[in-house]
Amino acid sequence: MVRGGGLWNATLAMSEKGFYGMAFCLALFSAIAVQRNIRDLAPYKKAEAMSQLDDAGAEA
Q1: Would the pTM of this model clear 0.70, i.e. be above it?
Q2: Which parts of the chain span the membrane according to its record (predicted)?
């Protein structure tokens, strides 16, 4: 909200406002996407680590 208000009141050309607005939206999207991917992959990484521990125990 504040970011949009700042762009609305800024003395920039409309193309600059659009550029900065889209840059902010894409940055927000990418931050959320990375967090979701890390969250979704966590169970797989835990299972992989456990299987590696099991394999190391079987070799010893």
Answers
A1: no
A2: 20-38
Residue 41 in any domain: the answer is: yes
> So what's the pLDDT on residue 7?
80
Flag whether 57 is in a domain: yes
Whether the CB-CB separation of 4 and 14 falls below 8 Å is answered with no
Residue 17 belongs to a domain:
no
Residue type, 26: L
Please give the backbone phi and psi of residue 7, each rounded to the nearest 5 degrees, phi first: -70, -35
User: How many domains are there within the chain?
Assistant: 1
User: What per-residue confidence (pLDDT) applies to 11?
Assistant: 87
pLDDT surpassing 80 at residue 1: no
- Report residue 38 as tokens: 């890390």
Q: For residue 33, what are the domain limits?
A: 25-60
